[in-house]
Structures are given as C-alpha cells and as structure tokens.
Amino acid sequence: MIILIGSKKGGVGKSTLATNIAAYLSKNGKDTILVDSDIQRSSSNWFHDRLETNLSPMACVQKYDNIKSTLQDLNKRYEYVVVDCQGRDSVELRTGLLAADIFIIPCRPSQPDIDTIPLMSDMVKQAREMNEELQAYCVLTMCPTNPQVTEIADSQKFIQNFSEIKLLEALIGDRKVYRDAIASGHGIVEMDNDKAKSEIESLMSEILKW
C-alpha cells in the first residue's frame, strides 16, 4: 500500500505526519519504507537519527521528479510505502498521486491553509482520472489545544464542502512532543505521551480501518 502525504503549502506538519505513520507501521511489524521526495530532507534526517537507536527497523530512500514508477516498484517489495512530498504543487506530488492508494493532506486550522483545499480537491479529481481507487483524506494538524479557540470547527465546516476529500475526525495537536520525536528519530507511538499517541492511533485507525 502506498500512503502519500502532501500539500500545496509548507509548514503544515507534513514530514511529522509521514515519519509518525512510518514509525507506527514499523512498530506494528509492517515491512515499511519511507520515501523522501522533499528536497528539505526532513524525513531523511529523521531516519538517519533513527539508525542510532534500537527502535523498530525500516528502510528509507530519496526520490525526486517523476516518482510514479519508483513507488509502484517499491510497492511490490514492501507492505507499506510512505511518501513525504514537497509542500507545494510539484512534479513529485502530481506523479505520486498517480500511484498512491491513500493521499493524506495535512492542513493547519487557519485561513491561509484551508485556502489551499480547493486546489487540492481539483488535484485529487484530476489524479482519479488515471488512478480511480485513490482515497483522499484531510487531517487538521498543529491544532490549538485551547478548547475556546474556534479555528478547528470553522476549518472543519469549510473542508466538508469538498466531496473529493474526506475530512478525518482525528486531530493532530500542536504539541512539543511531536517536535521532540522528529528531532530524535522516534515516532510518537514510541514515546511517553498518551495524548499525542492517541492522536496518531486514531488517525491510523481511520485510514487503515484496522
């Protein structure tokens, strides 16, 4: 299965999501490879830090430009292929969507971020002309933990207008532990923070239906 994480906008927690999904799958005994298609190399740096630990193993490669055939080939050799794409409308994102089974769009609950959803919806619609089985989800990331803030509800209401993309119920909070995890090669499910762990587990339960 190919799980692609991408967005038109940077700074939405894309690499954080990709590394945590890969760590979750690996911890659950799945043969997983992480594909870093972002020239910032955040996922690759995380992976190299992980090699210094005794955590569950996985593979990692870097691939740029047209990644469709590479993903299809890796999908024959691994149970799960997790792809971290660039935070913009790129060749990597467009070609990756032609191979992906699941597309996850991380989006912060803020106006500049949700303004990208119409374009992402169009992109999904175009990709489905060649990849009919593509499932597209949006997850709100870096969410404020203050219950008084209405940004989450406002963003959810807006995103639900786009039928090409399913809004996930899971929310990823703006928590320091996510930054600690990506700096140390860990996944949230490998750290001692029950609230953040529950967020990742809820996300994975929704997209994989385990």
Describe the structure.
Helices cover 42% and strands 20% of the residues. The chain has 210 residues and is an alpha/beta fold. Strands 3-2-4-1-5-6-7 form a seven-stranded parallel β-sheet, with helices on both faces. The longest helix has 15 residues, at 194-208. The protein is globular and about 40 Å long.
Largest sheet: 7 strands, parallel
Secondary structure: number of strands: 7
The CATH architecture assignment turns out to be 3-Layer(aba) Sandwich
Domains (count) = 1
Detail the poorly predicted runs.
none
Q: Tell me the series of helices and strands, N- to C-terminal.
A: EHEHEHEHEHHEHEHH
Strand percentage = 15-25%
Looking at the structure, the CATH topology is Rossmann fold
Alpha-carbon distance between the two ends: 14 Å
Query: Strands across the major sheet, in which order?
Result: 3-2-4-1-5-6-7
Radius of gyration (CA) equals 16 Å
| SS content category | alpha/beta
Quick check: average pLDDT?
95
Helix content: 40-55%
CATH homologous superfamily caption: P-loop containing nucleotide triphosphate hydrolases
Q: Given this structure, which CATH class is correct?
A: Alpha Beta
Number of helices: 9
Shape: globular
Comma- or semicolon-separated keywords:
single chain, 210 residues, alpha/beta, seven-stranded parallel beta sheet
SSE arrangement:
Layout (H helix, E strand, L loop, with lengths): L1 E4 L8 H14 L4 E6 L4 H9 L8 E4 L5 H10 L2 E6 L5 H7 L4 E6 L3 H4 L2 H11 L7 E9 L7 H9 L6 E8 L2 H9 L9 H15 L2
Parallel strand pairs: 1-4, 1-5, 2-3, 2-4, 5-6, 6-7
Helix pairs in contact: 1-2, 1-8
